[in-house]
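Can anyone check this?
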Amino acid sequence: MHAYRSHTCGALTAAQVGETVRLSGWIHRKRDHGGVLFVDLRDHYGVTQIVADSDSPALPVLEGLRVESVVTIDGVVKARGEGTVNANLATGEIEVFAKGVTVQSAAQELPMPVFGDSEYPEEIRLRNRFLDLRRDQLHANIMLRSHVIASLRRRMIDQGFTEFQTPILTASSPEGARDYLVPSRVHPGKFYALPQAPQMFKQLLMVAGFDRYFQIAPCFRDEDARADRSPGEFYQLDFEMSYVTQDDVFAAIEPVLHGVFEEFANWQGKGRTVSPLPFKRIPYRESMLKYGNDKPDLRNPIVIGDVSEFFRGSGFGRFASIVEGGDVVRAIPAPGTQEKSRKFFDDMNSWAQSEGFPGLGYATQKDGVFGGPIANNHGQEGMKAIADALGLGPNDGVFFAAGKEAQAAKLAGLARTRAAEQLDLIDKSRFEFCWIVDFPMFEYDEDAKKIDFSHNPFSMPQGELEALETKDPLDILAWQYDIVCNGIELSSGAIRNHRPEIMYKAFEIAGYTQEQVDANFSGMINAFKYGAPPHGGSAPGVDRIVMLLADQPNIREVIVFPMNQRAEDLMMQAPSPVSEKQLKELSIRLAPGVTLD
């Protein structure tokens, strides 16, 4: 028999009753029933119930061990008695009577339990991540992640993509997020950067003649954490294609994402549906109007409307003056709120103020009669015109966000989500995908008082060079697109600008000289001068895909060894000080006031 196990802890069934077996694993739980000890033995594959009574030499040893000790059990498989079968376990028909036990590793008192679903502070969980990963749900999440990545890789290969690896040590880029820098020992005073994404390399692969590239790519950005973004590093399904239009990119990646989500939609019995192919396409400006952001959750049935013109010259002076001053009024329907008290509407207003906005106006409605301060000022006839335009029912209330367009859109988008959550309108049994398309190429930077890129500077403008030379920059659209699922942006992508003369002109509009472009992006711009194919791609985030499939609210629940909010690895004590010798080798001196402690 094998030194440690003849079977795993998830393998034994009634077919093995009477056999002598050997199992190894962790003591998951112990239950003492007065001279009979029941032990749940756990390994990666499952749990098997071990029984030791006064006739078993294993009893005193098992009684003296703490949970999470690692043991090897020799025993005989027995059928469980009638009424004691556990249908929730794959091994629930049997138990193993312990004939002997070998202690492989005795556990000390635990800083946190493994058994059960109790919540523990993040610091304790991350400091003891090796224990946290033994817990059922987190262990399952990480296995799901592995299966999802395998599925993504298989589907990309089936679509004709070839996997390549791009460099981890590369050059710093002046665009994008803050870099993680790596000092060079052999080139004192110079630094590598960890790649924020393989963007330039994958485009250079297209220039080099590799037609369809992908990789499960690690990316590094020195930016703050969010619920859907891990600080430090993350992974994405990075891909690029040559000789393609936007439609070709969508046609290639949609079946991959749709297939993966369908494959795991019923994970842990959740039974969710996936929006059909092809995914819906929503222009950026339409998304900002109807949903208040560029990553809409389409499970939410509320659609925002612009009602500015209904207040122009109206009796409601406050909104009339806002509109006549060039600003806007956005309306957010609140379906079926006829039985809601005024407190519900006042609480929404208070919430808006807590988010830093002046407030959120509202009108109630019951059986077609409007109430509330805005209705009192605007009148029943005026409110009915708004209700008809929005398609409101006779018992639907409405909220109003007014002010400058960007701020009104932001408040309306947040209020749309808040109202849907409060009214339980979001269907959590669905995965709803959409593309956001037709992003503006440029925007006006109010702080710098100049035109700047709004999204990705390396995207091809719609209309190409002619658009750059003849149109108002703020009217130019780009071949840029985001893919969104349930309000989570999975990736940004674009058809790339592969022609140097168009790139120089685009950067000129944003205030860059040709010399600056050549200096900052020399690798790519030089390559484009020697024959570059039209190309485009995207990079859906693996961590976010798994977070959605695992139905987890925080991305740390699907990452094996995540950092905390302050980008610290509490388990490995990183970042950590280094020795004076190491700094000297790198020709680095710490700034005044910074110590090695």
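Reply from J.R.: I decoded it. The domain at 123-279+533-596 is CATH 3.30.930.10 (BirA Bifunctional Protein; domain 2).
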